[in-house]
Amino acid sequence: MLEIRDVRAGYGAINVLWDLSLTIEPGKLTTIIGPNGAGKTTLLRAVMGLIKPSQGTISLNGGPLTGTPTWKMTDVSMAMIPEGRMTFRDMTVEENLMMGAFAPQHRAAAPANLEKSYQMFPRLRERRKQLAGSLSGGEAQMLAMARGLMSDPKLLIIDEPSLGLAPVMVNELFEILKRLKGDGRTIVLVEQNTHRAVGVADHVYLMQSGKVVLSQPAADVDLDHLHKLYFAR
Q1: Rounded Cα gap, residues 9 and 4, in angstroms
Q2: What one-character DSSP code corresponds to residue 82?
Q3: Beta strands 63-64 and 55-60: pairing type?
Q4: I need a surface site. Which of 8, 25, 214, 224 has the fewest CB within 10 A?
Q5: Which residues lie across from 214 on neighbouring strands?
Q6: What DSSP character marks residue 141?
Q7: Contacts of residue 43, Cβ cutoff 8 Å, sequence gap at least 6
Q8: CA distances (Å), 212 to each of 11, 19, 183, in order?
Q9: Which three-class secondary structure string do you get for 174-216?
């Protein structure tokens, strides 16, 4: 579904990704893990059109994705749930959700997708008139995920969803990821909680210093070996 081939990208004269290649298969949950500075966020920014690769190609369903503006990603059925939630704090929960269906082509389905969001995240229904800035960290993460689903994307990219959450909320989050995976949605999960990320994934990539140093089906991953590579031991 998503093919990344020999990509180099960075910021000005600073290169971060070095000839990076990976494949995201349709209907699968692919986990990308790695320490801080490995280039995970830079990779997502390149995919989403926030930075332009200096080399290599990014394609979606066989067509070129490189050069597509970020605001056009919903046109190709992609959505990203960013690190740090990034909710609109002075808008209500429901207003935040409706922003996820802002593009004209998604507005007709917005009421149905809103109801689906409330069914998946019942707590958001209870707080639908509350300002997003008054939510707890876990509730804000639920809101960010539900907003990303409002356009009913075929490819969902999720960046560090468990960051800063209490263990009980992490458990709830990963149960939701299992449900989304069970629905056949294609998911790219960037996550530092290696045990949980590998446990929910179909395929695992480990990044170090802008390169892929491990690519394995999740069922074949040896966590001890993974952690040695993760910490470069």
Answers
A1: 12
A2: -
A3: antiparallel
A4: 224
A5: 206
A6: H
A7: 4, 7, 9, 17, 20, 32, 207
A8: 19, 9, 28
A9: HHHHHHHHHCCCEEEEECCCHHHHHHHCCEEEEEECCEEEEEE
Six-digit token string for 23: 């494949």
Quickly list DSSP for 21-41. EEEE-TT-EEEEE--TTSSHH
User: What are the beta bridge partners of residue 92?
Assistant: 131
Q: Extract the tokens encoding 7.
A: 């990509």
Q: Tens of pLDDT along 68-126?
A: 899 899 889 999 998 888 999 999 999 999 999 999 999 999 999 999 999 999 999 99
- pTM of the model as a whole: 0.91
- Cβ contacts of 13 within 8 Å, gap of 6 or more: none
Q: What is the pLDDT of residues 142-197, one digit of tens each?
A: 999 999 999 999 999 999 998 888 899 899 999 999 999 998 899 999 998 899 99
Length of the chain: 233
